[in-house]
Task: structure prediction
Amino acid sequence: MNKDETTRLTVTVSRETDLALRAFLGAQGLRKGDLSKFIEESVRWRMFDRRVQDVKARNADVPVEDLQAAIDEACAAVRSEMWPTPK
Result:
């Protein structure tokens, strides 16, 4: 990632969280500069998890069979695009 593709943020956390995070990163062999990478990965994971929870909540009343049929249909469509049947 080059400098033009990054944004500087100011993040405020408790001292306890800061020390725990730095100890964790150190135990993983990561350096101080890896903090940004860790935060970016954590934010992306959290956004993905929120999206998954929203989808689960939205589909809570849909019968499992209907969900599976929709998944199978979507997978079949993608497979046919990626690996078209030779003519």
